[in-house]
Amino acid sequence: MDLSNSTKATQLTTLQRLLLAGMLALYFFYLNRNTLSVHFALDDLSNLRYYYVFKGSWIQLIQSQFALWRGDYRPMGGLFYMPIFHFAGLNPAPYQAVLLVLMLGAVYLVQRVAASLGAGDAAAYLAALIACYHAGLANLYYNAAFIYDVLCGFFYLAAFLYYLRIRNRGFLLNTGQTIVFLLLFLCALNSKEMAVTLPVMMVVYELIYHPVAVRDFAKVRVWIGGPGRAIVAAGLLDAVDVYGKVAAPDALIHAGGYSPVFNLSRVYDFQKNLLQDLCMAWHWVPGWTVILAIWAALALLAWVWPGRPVLRLLFWFLVFVPLPIEFLPSKREACFCLLMVGAGIFVSVVLVDLARLAARIVSHLAALPPLQEKAIAAAIVLGAVFFWAQTQFHYQADIARIQMPQLGWESWDLIQQLPAFERPRPGSHVAFLQAPLSGTDTWGLALLWIHDKSVDVHVWTQGVLSPDQLAHTDHIYTFENRKLMQLK
Question: Most exposed: 247, 278, 309, 432, by fewest CB within 10 Å?
Answer without folding.
Answer: 247
